[in-house]
Amino acid sequence: MSHSIPDQEGNATPEDASASVTATPSVKYRNYVRNCALLLNDAMGPVIASSISPMKIGTQLVLINAQPCEPYMGFVLAFTIGVDYKDMPPRRCIPSQEHKLRIKFPRGKFTHTIEEASPEVLARFPDGKRKGRCIVTVKLHSDARVSVLGFGIPFANHADPEVDGWVNKNTPIIDNTTILDVLCQDTFVFVLDSTVVDAQKQWKESDLAPLFTYPYGDKHSWDKVRFRELLDRNKSDEKFEPAHYHDSHNSHLTAVTHSVVQDTFWVSEAAREIRDYKVSGYFVPRDPDSDKMYYVLIRLLKGFKDEYDAAWRRLIKEEKFSLWIFEEKTEKHPKGAWDCLIVDHPEHIEALRDHRMSSDDSETMEELVLLTRRPPPNALARGPNLSVQAFGSRSIADAAFKKDENHIADRMALHRCLMLGSGFHDWMMRTKSPDDVSEAMAATNLNDKPAVRPIPVVNLLDVSDDAYIDALVKEALPADQVRFRQYMVNRPLGLGIITAGPGFGKTTALAAATLGMCATVGKVLCCGPSNVSVDNFADRLNRVTRSVSARYNEGKPEGDNSRSRHQFVIRAFKINREVEAALHLLAKPDETDMTFLSRGWGRKTKWQPHLSVAVWMLVLLRSQAKCVWTLHSDDSEWLHRKQRTLDTENHMSLLRDIARGKEDYKPQFATPIKKLLTKLAVELVQAADLLCTTASASTKEDIFAMWKENLARGVAFDEAANMDRADLADVWGNTLLPCLMGGDPKQLPPTVMTRDEKDKRGNLFNRFSHDGGISALDFQQAAGYPVYRLVTQLRMGNGLFDWVAELIYPDVPLTYSSLCQIDQPKFALGHNLEDFIRSKYPEVKAPPANKFWPVFLSCENGRVFVDRNTGSKQSKDQVKVALDFALDFVTVKNVNPAKITIISPYAANVDYLSRMRKQPEYAALEGMPQASSVDGFQGQENDIMIVVMGTAFPQPGAGFTSNPQRLNVMLTRQRCGLVVVGHIKMPGVVDDGEEDEGKGKGKGKGKRKGKGPVKGKKERIMTLNEEGEMVWMVVTVLKEMYKRMYTNGRVATVTIAKLIKPLKARQLCVSQRTLPAIHLPYDRYLKLYVARSGPVEVLRTLWRGGEKTNGWRDGKMPSAGDGRTRARAWKREDMGGLKEVARGYSSVEGSGS
């Protein structure tokens, strides 16, 4: 929900009548906003603020019914912030450059009068454009006071010290009257730019909507039964509006809790129902000579998938399932529980060729094919049940702020204000920590001058060693060093936000800031929304701490006690995984494949060796394993001391000898060694200066939870724009530890799996999907919190970010660093790529001098399949084009394949890429990183990126590649070059009559002049959505990106060989209730038309250039005639073998094949 004031004609409708005490669903509540002037004492008193005459403070009288926040009558004071965009949040969160205080009159505790303005008053405001003005006088009851939203939000206006002083220093505005004096009045006088009749009609308390509360109670701890009852009782087809501030703690907790619960709870309930639904099935050996692997063919009644459609699509995205096996349907307990996977495209599996469902069965049944394996004989348990606690608490607060229990309670109150996003007025106006809101309201005596407590300001570079801070600040660009230092030394509430687009160095800046915070307050817990983000953050922290120490230690000899030490960085995974990895490396020190923990059938682990606990243990043991490094002389003193201890301890002798190759590892050593390693792992974690792990692990893993509660003195989050607020609260706690966030709101937001799915009655499963999409970083930016924004591109070669900057970051002037000039040796690979493209595809135009530009390989005749079970798009043709391109480039230019990465938005393409790379013909690509999904690759980069779009037009369409945030990530992972493989002929991109969008009759129909998108207009095309339905989809950014590539000559056409196969009668079948379009793999298509009164009637059209034949006149399909039962079969040479059309079947088996 925006903080901006609604338009004067805006309407606000209650989202849910059940959430309101007296709201009626049919009633619409209007907002009322009018410019006015605020006067002191009476109508002839001094003018404090005015929007009807020139003043530095603007004001408006308002009546706001913007739910889910509390409706109110009051006024707004607006102060100009300034024009320095570097210190401003992005426009996405704050639509204006004004700092606003929203003053609410207490509902039911004030009276007001409205009367005509006298000539003397009108003479004071001569520029009125309205027909009349009036005087509004508001009188508060004796026990009442106004409440203020936005008070205390950090504010700066360097261009106008007077305004800055009014807000920050409470200096007098006029006649010794300050803002606080104004807010503490019991009488408020306004000159309103409105007639008396208009004001009396529209600004009255009876027009306020009923008080709004979410209908989910005030208990938010995990209770499945309670949540089930609440969700069943409050179903609706309307979503709650997103709220960027809250009026109460219960409102805040409800939005944060239910945005997570409603995203997943219904899926859990559906999974339970599906688990209890017993079906028949049979087994087919995968290998006739083995009894370990089987295909399982499950027959489901038609309608099963429709019954659980929304949940089914979610559940099948899991990597592994459990297949419960019963001998009889009446049994309550399964005989076996086998791991299994869903098989995509089973029609292509040779072993199942003779197991296709008959046409008779297909009328009443659906088929699901699984791949399962027989578990080992002793595998009885599938793992322990873990108890999840949604929200944690700190037992020991930050030592820098914790003095006594009262101080902790006060900081907790301040933290709650911060999380509400509505300002700090109540906290700043009281002298102690009240227990509830009513106590806070009574804390200030209106008859006395108010005593204002300043919000705490933290210096995150508060280190006595100035030389270290100088070395740290030099991690920033020279032009940013002063700004970076100023931002870090003056952080209100200890909160810092660093934001920038991709390639601008925000992770490096966040790492430098985190090291400064660590040097100031002590140990820091570092988190991210995904394992990849935590990996990147840990690596950057390690590199920056070594860079800073090297800079600081220049000229100092080895052994000098004044040398700076590296901060001890650990990238921590589950301790049992770390011990398992260490045992494996002790047994196989020559191991080079670091995915060894992912081998086998089980769930893939995200464990990586770099900076892990396992490898740190082996470093201390002086292991000979290939992935182990030696301690640096400037590493943490604790590490050197611990290594010396391990060198001499007798009980560690066996472990030492195995690690150093003096003793062979034997299985019988596993138990005693595992105990030693577990103990050593715990010691390492406790000694870490910077512990990097996921939010989930910080709660579920006991040792990490202990570290968070007892040792952490600050927290830092990378990719915070991709992190939901529940994870933020889980890690940050509630005692206002110093906190740093880094991220980009214009990249991927938090994952919300349940958005528009509904039950059979049309009720939404998740009414808080909008709130779930508000990230931890978004929420604080929406409150107006100052950010440190980076504005210089540091990674991509000059030109590679041009079009993304124009389309996605139009509000930020693009500047390339000198590091991005492409005449440098590090961009040699980009020149090789450009030379290769120009020689292979002569039609591709060269980019401007001293620039790189992306190139698009458009696959003509390429096929894209949509899997019926998973909905994932797969284009084997585009995958092959991408791999062939990479292979030719590596071979011709002798390029290291490790410098190339292929990504795709669709998992089916990623899986096919991984399988195709194993073919002998692609042996030269060995060493190329594994293919990845776009979402999984956020935060990573490589020299050359190849993107497989996996889409085609008009069908299956753009899918979620049209999402600007996902597109942003997809097109910005490169350093030297970007190659996009897909289909360029999106409607409106290519000047081709068959591809143009919006063509129609009449002059000017479907045409638009100009090259850019129409400002404020969202361009749409008809395309296939994720549910397989034809819908209008907004594709403005994707379309404009395609246009830039096409109009600048950066498109090469790759023609896919036409594989024309005969279609047999059994392959072409339709029922009376279907109207499918079957796309043949060549430049013609056949449509099936069903007559209502006859079983089937098939009409055909062939397209060759402008020729139209066989039953089509003027481009229109003929009618079904009189409905006579008839079926026609044509024999024609160019139909590729189509001989007959069959009737009486209920599925289309050959479509797309």
Automatic annotation (TrEMBL):
Residues 489-754 form the DNA2/NAM7 helicase helicase domain. Residues 783-984 form the DNA2/NAM7 helicase-like C-terminal domain. GO terms for molecular function: 5'-3' DNA helicase activity; ATP binding; hydrolase activity. It comes from the Eukaryota. Residues 1-20, 990-1018 are annotated as: Disordered. Keywords: ATP-binding, Helicase, Hydrolase, Nucleotide-binding. It holds the Pfam family AAA_12. Residues 1001-1018 have a biased composition (Basic residues). Gene3D superfamilies: P-loop containing nucleotide triphosphate hydrolases. Transmembrane segments: none annotated. PANTHER family: DNA-BINDING PROTEIN SMUBP-2, DNA2/NAM7 HELICASE FAMILY MEMBER. Belongs to the DNA2/NAM7 helicase family. This is DNA helicase. It comes from Colletotrichum tofieldiae. The lineage of its organism: Eukaryota, Fungi, Dikarya, Ascomycota, Pezizomycotina.
